[in-house]
Amino acid sequence: MGARQGARHMIKGVLFDVDGVLVDSEQFIAEAAVLMFAELYGVVVEAKEFSPFIGTGEARYLGGVAELHRVPIEIARAKERTYDLYFEVIKGRMKAVPGALELVRELRAAGIGTAVATSADRRKFEANLGEVGFDEAAFDAVVTGLDVERKKPFPDIYLEAARRIGLSAAECVVVEDAPEGLRAGKAAGSLCVGLTTTFGSERLKESGADLILADLVGGFKAIKSLHRQV
Hints:
By secondary structure, this protein is of the alpha/beta class.
């Protein structure tokens, strides 16, 4: 029985969130959202107010803060304007998370499947990768928030990402920076790596991270080590 369980959990794929995992972007989307609320609604909000909604997709990210301030927000318009501001904010400022590009290359070279599973819309995903010189072709599949109805912490996006690379979520490792994303990965049945790029290690542990890293430098070795522990 134990041998069969071990085989079922063999790591054959790695599923990446994007913001805070591949690119160091969380501060910039908050900056853009603060500007949007001031511009469209004349409301002053603080960047820290968005923290509880990180990883849940921009509709909830913006909508959650709008509820706190009792702002009758029009999500489609607010999101589009936030993205427009975000694309200006990140120019020349955003960087890849250390080790991210190297890790993706090493995984591909080792024959391990790779997929992106981001709650953001595709236009934000493309802007993020373009700003740091990442190539979408480096991944075997890309799933965005527009591809699933239920966003994180529901497991749908990770189940779909695994399916698109021909694997079960139990055969994959999820790499996340946010509690809601880790909960989604655990609900999907994956082992989870938490990065402390956005939240502290204790918060990530509480959310189910099996391994916690500061960044992705040496990430390939760390994931292989996690593999051996299964």
